[in-house]
Structure formats: C-alpha cells, structure tokens
Design a protein that fits this description.
By secondary structure, the chain is mostly helical. Helices cover 84% and strands 0% of the residues. The chain has six helices and no strands. It is globular and about 50 Å long.
Amino acid sequence: MNVVPYSKLLGYCGLLPFLGLPLLSFLEGLSPLLSQTLFIQYSAVILAFLGGVHWSDALSRTFSKMQMSVAMLPSLLAWLCLFNPNGRVSILLLASGFIFMLLYDLRVFSSDKHYKRLRIELTAVTVLMHFVMAGLFA
C-alpha cells in the first residue's frame, strides 16, 4: 500500500475518538464527565505524540536544540491538563497546543506537502471538536 493513502487512513482513524466522544455524550451514551475525561486523556496522548515527531526528527536529521525543546512542550502541557480540575480549561489548553504544533510543523516541515495538508486537515477537525467539547460543558 502506498504510504500517502495509508497515512491518511490512519490519521482519519485517529479522529474517531475526537468525533465519537462528544457524540456519545450528546446522545447520552456516556455521562458528560466520563466523556470529558476520556476526551482529555485521548487529546493529551495525541498531543504528546505530535511532540515525539519532532524529537525523532531532531535526532535523525541535524541536531536542533530548538526543535528538541519544542518537542517537549506538548508532553508537558498534556500532562498538566490531565491534572487540571477544570476540564473546560484543559480542553481549551489542549486545543491551543494542537494549533501551536500545527504552526510549528508548517514551519519545520515546509517542503513536505502531503504531511502539511494532512496535518491541516486533522488539526482543523481536532480543534473544532475541542471547541465542541468545551461548549458542551459551558
């Protein structure tokens, strides 16, 4: 299988929890608190993963202190959001982390058109669903 369609398939499958958890909460298939907790946990894992992309890239190409430092930020933000007692604030902070990482990715991986397009698509849906989840608990 070609890497481009396969990466799109995996990327879109990764959106399922971001789409499904708000829907389950709305349809009362999950309690709002459980849905919110699972959403924050999944979001934290995915945001940390995005930092790992930069850690690996910085090690495999030319060592970049800046890129390695930025690679650590998503994990730290995600970890702090797991302990924040205000779920709405955590969701909005996580959304901000996804936006920041997208902007950084567009700068660092500027020549990879496939990756840029996929990241824009996935981040748009992800951030939109963060705003939906934050609105569910306003």
